[in-house]
Amino acid sequence: MTVAARYTDFAAREAHGVSPVYERLARAVAQDDELLALLGALPPARRQPQLLFGVVRWLGGPVEDPAAFRDHTVAHWPAVEAAMRTRAVQTNEAGRCAALLPVLAALPQPLALLEVGASAGLCLYPDRYGYRYGDHLLGPGEPVLDCLATGVTPPTTRPEVVWRAGLDLNPLDVTDPADVAWLDALIWPEHAHRRARLRAAAAVAAADPPELVRGDLVDDLPALAARAPAGATLVVLHTSVLYQVPPPRRAAFADLVRGLPGHWVANEAAAVLGHHGLPAPPDGALYNLLTRDGTPLAWTRSHGQSLHWFG
Questions:
Q1: CATH domain 96-309 topology
Q2: Residue numbers of the chain with a pLDDT score lower than 70
Q3: Residue extents of the structural domains in the chain
């Protein structure tokens, strides 16, 4: 896929109806030869719309007006390029826990959670957050995570988590203002509710920080998984991570995690793990596929805002 096509696809399938600001920006970038040439000089994994827009926001640049964004980005390209080469899209959206909860709550309790691509670990606290599935409220915690769930009865209990750990090439620290600022920059401009949710979830994590290990999802997973306490169900989980991993490493990870004790909960784009013959998603938006131990269960939106169960 060309850089222009990548930005056009992002505008149509991810930003449309979700972020008018980013939809405008992505369409403008897709038609700007100079910006496309600058982006084309980056490694393919560093050309993502979310990374470019997040970096410009993080560096204090404008995003509301495409012309101002374009002029600022070109004028400050050395700084933008440097950050795009060193930073990564590590969106740590606690709202995804609402999509994971029906699976986690149904597993044998208590749980030992191990998140791959954990970022700052905010998705390791499904037992601490509150949930709202339509009129169904669950738990007293903050933030309260809203999710439109169809095809499944919302859980009536939260999971019991006795151990939580994360693995990431570049783990972020919720007690570090710079890391929290980067997480904030990755939230799309109009999403004030997600910014408030980030602050509330970061406060939960900072009060009881998870064990975050810097490491590779294949090389370092077995040693970390071996530290899970006996008597707890090990759950290796990840969401919107594997698209950043080269296909051979994805395959090696899938082979590895299938051999671990416990369960594997994935929430990724359907093509990432090669699933075929699935029912059609509800509409033309971009959906993730929720799976348990390789079995497809539901379509989910990327921030956990909806769950369409078919499993």
A1: Rossmann fold (3.40.50)
A2: none
A3: 3-86, 96-309
